[in-house]
Amino acid sequence: MQYVWFIWSLIILALWGVVYLMKKDSRREMLKMSWITMPFGLTEPLFVPEYWHPPSLFDLAIKTGFDIESLIFSFSIGGIGTVLYNLIFKRKYVEIPHSERKHERHRLHLYILFVPAVVFLVLALFTPLNHIYCGIAAMFLGGMATLYCRPDLKTKIWISGFLFTALYFVYFGSILPFYPNYVELFWNLENLSDILVAGIPIEELLFAFTFGMYWSGLYEHLYWKKLMKPLAIS
After folding, report:
1. Residue 41 reports pLDDT greater than 50
2. Over 70: is that where the pLDDT of 77 sits?
3. pLDDT of residue 104
4. pLDDT of 14 higher than 70
5. Above pLDDT 90, what percent of the chain?
6. Do 79 and 30 contact (CB within 8 A), yes or no?
7. 67-72, Cβ contacts within 8 angstroms, sequence gap of 24 or more
């Protein structure tokens, strides 16, 4: 099982490549958000071994808490999470006019971008919660805060949560038929809810849902973009 996590990371990277090839008009956005998301893979020591302890290349995860796979995984989901909704619903980005940026609801624009980081730090430092729950709560509240500034993203944020969860369910389940004991062996289920959905820890699906919610609107929030409505067919 030494290479399962590495294979898993390559599967999601291959999926990223497929989306990148299919969504030609969003490649720049995918790359930007993938590079922005990739450093979050360096947070792996917060989750190893308290959340899980997977075998990794060169045994880096066990020896240091860091691993190469987490960087590949973070890079991949960052780009996919950004454009998944647009890919399915054929939406494109347009610039938000400067006049619209002066609206009262945008006064907290910069502060709202830091909501997930603040929530995560507060929960991680002042509660006994496993860090996976801190991350789930942080992204959920980050998504809710985004809606204050960007109510136009309401549909995209909620639907993207479900879309990314469905995608993640298939992705996570791709390995389980070959390694059915993998979750039992390398997730600390006794420290979690111990609820499995088709063999997948519920925490993984909650992570997918909240990640899909928050990341789907992050590009628009960071770069002052909005979605162009599809043209009506006459």
Report:
1. yes
2. yes
3. 74
4. yes
5. 74
6. yes
7. 67/5, 68/6, 68/9, 69/5, 69/6, 69/8, 69/9, 70/9, 70/41, 70/42, 70/44, 71/38, 71/41, 71/42, 72/9, 72/10, 72/12, 72/13, 72/41
Quick one: which of 153, 151, 166, 149 has its CA closest to 209?
166
The 3-state DSSP class for residue 232 equals: coil
- Amino acid 214: pLDDT: 95
In Å, how far from its chain's centre is CA 70? 12
- Residues 110-144 pLDDT 10s: 888 899 999 999 999 999 999 999 999 999 999 99
Q: Is 59 left (phi over 0), alpha (psi -120 to 50) or beta?
A: left
Q: Both tokens of residue 163?
A: 């879309």
Among residues 134, 31, 124, the alpha carbon closest in space to that of 83 is found at 31
β-strand pairing of 92-95 with 225-228: antiparallel
| pLDDT of residue 227 exceeding 50 | yes
Rounded Cα distance between 132 and 143, Å, is 17
Least confident span in 30-39, 138-147, 217-226: 217-226
Cα(29)–Cα(215) distance, rounded to whole angstroms? 12
Indicate the burial class of 206 (C-beta count within 10 angstroms; 0-12, 13-18, 19 or more): buried
Cβ distance 49 to 131 under 8 Å? no
